[in-house]
Write a structure and sequence with these properties.
The chain is α/β, with parallel strands linked by helices and 349 residues long. The chain is built from eight helices and 20 strands. The chain is 20% helix and 33% strand. GO terms for molecular function: 2 iron, 2 sulfur cluster binding; flavin adenine dinucleotide binding; metal ion binding; oxidoreductase activity.
Length: 349
């Protein structure tokens, strides 16, 4: 006999837009102020992102992930920067409609594009709006870290350089630690292996973070690999458009009387919980149904927001578009895609 357990709805957070900054002709920064009672839910680490609900006349609202460009290491409001994309429903809706006073529904900050330590030397690569999480890391490392930072930043032309004035100010304030190298396609052409290798070579053994269009990131990854950079020191942020609505109700748990039920021990935010994990159900659904506030965003295996580590036991993933082979070897899994294979599993976030 199979039964379906009723499921809770996702509780979205709310944040008010207090200012809209026009960085370039097609890039807007939203300055956000969460409600006081929800402030703790907006705590974040440099390099993480917010998932925004976008109103739509379709069957369900759209949702998009946008990186925070602010730094949690200094006293500033949360900021996300959105650049228009051709035929991009969400980016165009935001740039055309969102003004100061607008209230947005979002999910908790999430993502693993985060330095394990700020006390190291960094090599940062960004192209276009890919600079947003990179800027958060850059500012945080300058404020709270001790190392040197080189940013190689590619854009079509000077008019499309997002955060141009802020980068100039930071370079002056941290002249001994920050080096910004601009690459303009209108002047130097499209970044290629040879040109990027020449720029990266002096810094190739640093902790590297890369964000931008897919071909750009692939190029830089190849450059660093060819220069002998350790794989664990190369970090890439890849975003895919969300197909489903992460704000929709959690999938109900299906309990098969003839199926096995595993037990999962979960360490999250300093608390340990033990939960029954019925066969065939995905870990994230199990945790959310148990009232555990586990992080997530896309619920499709296309982002890294729900990443956790298996400490004991065995699981299988139905889908994975973001974790690299090395991540899997280290025990990382996507909770939204994981099903139990052993009777006992222990994980930590």
């Amino acid at each position: 006999m199979t039964s379906i357990v009723s499921t809770p709805r996702i509780t979205a957070l709310q944040t008010r837009v207090v200012e809209v900054i026009k960085e370039t002709h097609d890039a807007h920064t939203l300055v956000l102020e969460p409600a006081a009672e929800q402030a703790d839910s907006f705590r974040y680490r440099p390099g993480q992102f917010l998932t925004l609900r976008i109103p739509s006349d379709r069957d369900q609202d759209a949702a998009r992930c946008y990186s925070l460009c602010s730094s949690p290491e200094q006293d500033e409001r949360l900021k996300v920067t959105i650049k228009r994309t051709r035929d991009g429903y969400a980016s165009n809706w935001i740039c055309d409609n969102v003004e100061a006073g607008h209230v947005l529904e979002v999910l908790k900050p999430a993502g693993t594009f985060v330095p394990s330590s700020l006390d190291t030397d960094f090599l940062l690569f960004a192209a276009g709006s890919g600079v947003t999480p990179v800027l958060s890391i850059l500012k945080s490392a300058l404020i709270a870290g001790t190392g040197s930072i080189t940013l190689i930043y590619a854009n079509r032309d000077e008019q499309n350089v997002i955060f141009k004035d802020e980068l100039v100010a930071l370079t002056k304030a941290y002249s001994g630690r920050l080096h910004v190298i601009h690459w303009l396609e209108s002047v130097q052409g499209i970044p290629d292996l040879a040109s990027m290798t020449a720029l990266a070579k002096p810094y190739a053994q640093r902790e590297a973070f890369i964000c931008g269009p897919g071909p750009f990131m692939d190029c830089i990854e190849t450059v660093l690999q060819n220069l002998g950079a350790a794989p664990e020191r190369i970090h890439i942020e890849r975003f895919n458009s969300l197909e489903a609505n992460p704000f929709a109700p959690v999938d109900p748990l299906v309990v098969d009387a003839d199926g096995e039920t595993a037990q999962v021990e979960v360490e999250l935010d300093g608390k340990t919980s033990n939960v029954a994990w019925p066969a065939g159900n995905k870990l994230l659904d199990v945790l959310l149904n148990a009232g555990i506030d586990a992080p997530f965003s896309c619920r499709e295996g296309a982002c890294s927001a729900c990443t956790c580590i298996v400490l004991e036991g065995e699981v299988e993933m139905e889908r994975n578009e973001v974790l690299e082979p090395q991540d899997l070897e280290e025990g990382l899994i996507l909770a939204c895609q994981a099903k139990a294979l052993s009777p006992k599993v222990k994980i930590t976030y």
